[in-house]
Amino acid sequence: MNIYKFITFNKIINLNGMLTSINPKLPMRDKAKTKSYYVESLGFKEFGAVDYPDYLMVEKDEIQIHFFLFKALNPEENYGQVYIRTDDIETLYQSLLKNNVPIHPNGSLEIKPWGQKEFALLDPDSNLLTFGESLG
After folding, report:
1. 86-to-15, 44, 117 alpha-carbon distances in Å
2. Contact between residue 44 and residue 59 where contact means Cβ atoms under 8 Å apart
3. How far is it, in rounded angstroms, from Cα 64 to Cα 32?
4. What is the rounded CA–CA span in Å between residue 133 and residue 136?
C-alpha cells in the first residue's frame, strides 16, 4: 500500500459546528405505558406534531428521548441506557421520591469515584436512566 492511499483512507473529517444534539432511541413494548411513565412520572412532554403509532418522542428542558416499538422486547435482556446530566440532582431526586417514582435498587443517590453524584431509574421496559451532576 502506498503512503498516499493510507493518508487518504485515514483522513480526519472536521465536524466542528455541524453537530447540534444527540437524541437516544430506546426500545418500548407499549407506547401508551411508555408515554405515561415519561409524562406522568418524570414530567416530560410529548414532542412532535405527528403521532406515529410505532414511535414516540418526549422532551424535558433541553433533552429529547425517542422510542421505537419493539413488542418482542424481553425487559430482562434489554441493555438500553441513557446518561442524563443535570445541574440540580438533589432537587430532582427528592421530587422523584416525593412522587413515588421507583429508584433502581442499585441506583440510589451517591457520589461516584469519578466525581459525579448519580442515581438511576428503570423505565417500564428496563431502559436504564442514569442522572448525574458533576461535582467539579
Report:
1. 26, 14, 10
2. yes
3. 18
4. 9
CA distance to 9, 25, 59, per residue, from 46 (Å): 43, 15, 6
> In sequence order, what are the beta bridge partners of 119?
131
- At the top level of CATH, the class of 20-134 is alpha beta
- Total-model pTM: 0.85
> What are the strands, taking DSSP E only, across 1-136?
25-28, 45-46, 55-60, 63-69, 81-85, 110-111, 116-122, 128-134
pLDDT in tens, 56-97: 999 999 999 999 999 999 999 999 999 999 999 999 999 999
52-87 burial: b if 16+ Cβ within 10 Å, else e:
eeeebbbbeeebbbbbebeeebeeeebebebebebe
pLDDT tens string 17-55: 777 888 999 999 999 999 999 999 999 999 988 889 999
